[in-house]
Design brief:
- By secondary structure, the chain is mostly helical.
- The protein folds into two domains: about 180 residues, M75 peptidase, HXXE motif (A middle domain of Talin 1); about 140 residues.
- The chain contains 13 helices and no strands.
- α10 runs antiparallel to α11 and α12 runs antiparallel to α13.
- The longest helix is centred in the middle third of the chain and has 34 residues.
Length: about 350
């Protein structure tokens, strides 16, 4: 997943590097954003279909190889969602699709309660039953519970109720992400014709960095006035918190940076784009060198220093985009930032 995003990013940056004098039909920043995000939604849909197929195979005859394939496909699809998570407007807002894909934060462990409730039900659900239920049972965290919670060993997951539930959730995810991809394509004309979406796209990316700094890292690490609490982190059961953060950073490089560079070039402020790119690259390197999970690093002094460095790098990214770049472009912050609660 990370490798595919990097290939897309390199391609986009190569296109940006082409001298304008040779360009016959230079795309606008919004055209670049729409096309890049369409590719990200396409990857999310494709990865979710692979996950659904893996769940079906595992339920037909589970073994260690199929289990490993299922876990890998779950993580790849979850990472594909993280890559495009900075888009917090448009089709993803319809019927709270973002919450459907990822119910988080989950301070009351509603995901666990919902999964346990369905495992005790007289009949296992199908995808329509999942669609009619709470967002707490519809997305990647519910699958994570089935795959990684201490209450679920391999034998439990292989049982008919757990397997049917897992396949129903995976099918619902595949259906939802496919519809999201189609709807983003259909959203294109309105997005491209509406000048305000330039500001909306930037504000959405700024908000994503705010959530990344404050909620996804700051609160679990104990940097926001309360003690450290690893259970506040995403993907704490699977130990993939930092890998999801890395995917979000890769998504910004692939989905946001090309259009942002074009926009700042138009504003004669290309050095700001280069500064953001360089800081993003530095932050990606820092994330890639850390262990995948956050919780173990809370008890390891050296590992925690690595997390702190990542936190500071993301804080600098947020400052560059939310203050220096937003100020240069005259962005007025009126975007409704969500605290995730």
């Amino acid at each position: 997943m990370i490798a595919s995003l990097r290939r897309l990013s390199l391609l986009a940056c190569a296109l940006l590097a082409t001298p304008l004098s040779f360009a016959t039909d230079t795309p606008t920043p919004r055209e670049m954003w729409h096309g890049a995000v369409e590719l990200q939604y396409a990857e999310l849909s494709a990865a979710s279909e692979r996950l659904e197929a893996s769940a079906a195979r595992f339920c037909q005859g589970s073994d260690e190889a199929l289990r490993q394939r299922l876990e890998n496909d779950w993580l790849s699809a979850y990472q594909a969602w993280q890559a495009v998570r900075f888009i917090q407007f448009g089709p993803v807002e319809q019927n709270s699709r973002g919450w459907q894909l990822q119910f988080w934060p989950d301070r009351k462990n509603l995901v666990g309660s919902k999964v346990r409730g369905w495992l005790k039900a007289a009949e296992a659900p199908d995808a329509q039953d999942i669609a009619s239920d709470s967002v707490a049972i519809q997305g990647f965290p519910a699958l994570e519970y089935l795959l990684y919670d201490d209450a679920m060993d391999e034998q439990a997951l292989s049982g008919p109720k757990a397997c049917t539930l897992m396949h129903a959730i995976a099918t619902y995810l595949a259906d939802t992400t496919s519809a999201l991809h189609r709807d983003w394509q259909a959203f294109g004309e309105h997005y491209l014709d509406t000048a305000d979406y330039t500001e909306t796209t930037l504000a959405s990316a700024i908000q994503a960095l705010e959530i990344l700094e404050d909620k996804r890292l700051g609160e679990p690490m104990g940097l926001k006035g309360a003690p450290a609490n690893g259970y506040l982190a995403e993907a704490w059961r699977s130990g993939q918190t930092v890998r999801l953060v890395e995917s979000s950073l890769e998504g910004l490089r692939t989905g946001l940076l090309p259009g942002l560079t074009a926009l700042l070039r138009e504003a004669d402020a290309l050095p700001l784009a280069e500064a953001f790119r360089d800081q993003l690259d530095k932050t990606l390197v820092q994330a890639s060198e850390l262990p995948p999970g956050l919780v173990p690093s809370l008890e390891d002094e050296e590992a925690f220093r690595g997390l702190q460095s990542l936190y500071l790098d993301i804080s600098q990214l947020r400052h560059l985009l939310g203050n220096e770049i937003a100020g240069e472009l005259g962005l007025v912050r009126g975007f409704n930032s969500s605290d995730g609660d």
